[in-house]
Design brief:
Elements (H helix, E strand, L loop, with lengths): L2 E3 L1 E7 L2 E6 L3 E3 L2 E4 L5 E4 L4 E7 L1 H17 L4 H14 L8 E6 L4 E5 L4 E2 L5 E5 L2 H14 L4 H15 L8 E6 L1
Antiparallel strand pairs: 1-4, 2-3, 2-11, 3-12, 4-5, 6-7, 7-8, 8-9, 9-10
Length: 178
Amino acid sequence: MRIRSTTILAVRRDGEVAIGGDGQVTLGDTAIKHGARKVRKIHNDRVLIGFAGSASDAITLYENLEKKLEQYRGNLQKSAVELAREWRNDRVLRQVDALLIAADASDSYLISGSGDVISPDDDVLAIGSGGSIALAAAKALLKYSDLTAKEIISEALQLTSEICIYTNAKIEVDTIEI
């Protein structure tokens, strides 16, 4: 059985960056956890992260990002690139089944366990089982509303929970000022 879990969404708007996620973890056709915490502030609360995929792999990915942030004095771009470079060169770590969104005051990145670092073309990133639904909802809300980044995430994830069976409505959103 495959463990499926989560939708993580990041939005940047009007001096605020927010990342949110739902709390569901699903094993096969059963929701086995409803309140998993998948969004965190790290590096002295200056970097927001949200993760999807295998829990142990995601935690390993974010712990290694935290180490890189310490090493590179909080430079998220340099930390993400160096983490990806290190990850790609390690045969064991390359098999990690996780995705991470990390954002600070100036940048947002999708970081994969396989060593990818992707910066969005616009102000939205989404990962996980309901990622494409949340991405579409957030882009529409950005274009056609005056909602804050936090409000967009809440609304988009609520809509996603109504469509994606691997996403629930126990939504957690955290923000940092930019």
